[in-house]
Specification:
9 helices
Length: 319
């Protein structure tokens, strides 16, 4: 049952940060698709809770059947699917700009990717290619993710080709435009470095090709700030309940240690190594975390937020 407990601890941390994320996206996100991003993350949280309940049920009522082993691998791959989506968008966001939102997010996911790889190794699960979507909701999320990613990346590509091009503030807010232009201005600026520009072009092209082949349409449903707050309140209570049940059956889990620190928006985890905090390399070590970058199931969800931190970001660990 140890693998169930470790995966559930990983999942609780993932749910916690996603609650904080969809709330933050409605508060400090910029650009026309920020609230759409928030809705995608909100839907993800709902799915992750289902997986948490399945893992917890197995811990509360252990089964040694062959079916139980298959169920673990199925749940693992479903969690991996959502993690891959978040990892790719965080990587792309970091490529666009390093700030106190993108960098902690990218480094946090790099750390979590190591945990997930270790879990897979111990459970003898092959990480192979990216996990494909299994439900209509996941397929829609994949499509919408590419829509959003392409929109942001295409603006960068266009601005690099023509820095003087006219864009209204609804297409690209002034703040974001200034940041992007600053990365073009000098020969050694961010977008003029091969280690940054080549991955941007590659991800931009993959999104374009994916959208050309997709039969779906972009979702128009978005999340308001009030709706985010209301859902977060319910999700916090649900996570507290999961944690209380979890602690009864696995009190020694590291997630309940007095030294455990929950991830937060715009803050580096102390556990992130100094090497990961300072690296400028984009070698794809974690981008190709679970297989070939050409995998058809790859999804890319980008959110672009201001450098300001929101001091009202929720923290389940403090409640």
């Amino acid at each position: 049952m140890e693998k169930y407990a470790r995966l559930l601890a990983f999942l609780c941390e993932l749910i916690d940060i996603q609650i904080k994320k969809y709330v933050s996206l409605t508060r400090i996100g910029i650009g026309p698709d920020a609230r759409m991003n928030a809705k995608l993350v909100l839907d993800e949280v709902g799915a992750l809770f289902l997986f948490a309940d399945q893992l917890l049920s197995e811990l509360e009522h252990p089964s040694q059947s062959e079916q139980s082993g298959k169920q673990f691998e199925t749940i693992f791959n479903q969690i991996k699917f959502y993690f891959e989506q978040e990892y790719i968008r965080a990587y792309a966001g970091w490529l666009i700009d390093e700030n106190n939102i993108h960098s902690p997010e990218y480094h946090r996911l790099a750390q979590q990717s190591d945990k997930l790889q270790e879990l897979a190794s111990d459970a003898k699960i092959s990480l192979g290619a990216f996990s494909p979507p299994q439900t209509p909701a996941q397929r829609q999320c994949q499509h919408d993710s590419h829509e959003i990613a392409y929109f942001i990346l295409d603006l960068v590509v266009q601005l690099k080709q023509n820095p003087a091009m006219e864009l209204d503030e609804n297409t690209l807010p002034v703040h974001a435009r200034k940041i992007m232009l600053s990365h073009i201005a000098e020969p050694d600026s961010r977008y003029n470095k091969e280690s940054i520009w080549n991955p941007i072009q590659q991800l931009h092209e993959r999104c374009r090709l994916f959208l050309e082949q997709s039969t779906l349409q972009k979702s128009i449903e978005k999340l308001s700030r009030d709706a985010a707050n209301a859902n977060a309140s319910k999700h916090i209570d649900a996570l507290k309940d999961i944690l209380a049940r979890f602690q009864k059956v696995q009190p020694d889990s590291a997630i309940f240690a007095s030294t455990h620190q929950w991830y937060d928006i715009g803050r580096e985890s102390p556990a992130v190594s100094k090497e990961k905090q300072t690296t400028k390399s984009t070698s794809y070590k974690h981008f190709v975390l679970f297989g070939s970058v050409a995998a058809a199931a790859m999804a890319s969800l980008i959110y672009y937020v201001t450098q300001a931190q929101d001091d009202t970001v929720l923290n389940v660990a403090k409640i």
